[in-house]
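Input record (one chain):
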Amino acid sequence: MTEFKETCLHDKHVALGALMSPFGGFDMPIQYAGIVEEHNAVRNRVGVFDVSHMGEVRVTGPEAERFVNYIFTNDVAPLECGKILYGMMLYPDGGTVDDLLVYKVSTTEFFLVINAANIDKDVDWIQKHAAQFDVTVANESEHYGQLAVQGPDSESTVAHVLHLDVADLVFYSFKTVDVDGDCVIVSRTGYTGEDGFEIYASHDTIRTMWDRLIDAGVQPCGLGCRDTLRFEVGLPLYGDELSPEISPITATLGMFVKLDKEGDFIGKDACARQKAEGSPKKLVGLELKDKAIARHGYDVLQGDRVVGYVTTGYRGISVDKSLAVALVDREAGALDTELSVRIRKKVFPAVVVKKRFYKKSYKK
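The corresponding structure, as predicted from the sequence alone:
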């Protein structure tokens, strides 16, 4: 029998009656009141997620900036301290090791946030390549718990309930604050398409903050609506829209691959080739002309020919349409191309659309 890890809030989820299920090697809450109710709470008000399953790695040393730029597709050199970048770590062939956030504390210190299911793999990858640089790599995943407070009311909630001054933070910036002797990282980031904050702290501090938010009436949210929220605004999920077989170029995330930055980075040549020649496959949005729901792995067809498969599909909660993201042959991926999706034994018509189905709402 497989044993799954538990976050520092596991007992609190159980006490609230959350539906629990394995995710990324952890026993995680999928929903509390229900996915639709939680999704709408984040879109319209505020919700709180336990994302303590995510991994955290700190890179320090004289060559920290050069090293992070070597393993990361985006460019941290011109980044101001206190700012954050999204990007990927790649294999030499351009496939994705993981997508991650990089926090620039200073030119000699970086804080990397990685996906839960990839912690061991990522840390091994980072440490393997760190041997060539004057840096120290510390896996701090066991130390940190993490909350995501998301929604249009998130700023006032964090200020009034948690007593954290966050009005000065703009999108993709962070700061460290002292909370009862605990060094807490607060960033204006999230995975929902709404304004919000992610808070990294010791387990005890995270438990205290969670209790305060729940006592204040903030809606606890599970990973079910985290997925529907990120899907509607076109944010990728590792394992679905990015993988060792799916490069950021194939995933149409080339804006996060800085081929012109100083120095080499792992996977650069493969990405440059894909940008120049075009990737054989392409991630696209699909709108189904029916209420049928396309699930991960379902075939996408052009005529009678299979041209790809669905990576994620839902009935959009905020947009009330049957939508999907699919990996298809490049020739079948142009906007307005008519395709179809095989759902069990039936075939449903679909059309290629932009894969951002709902407008993001961030504080710039």
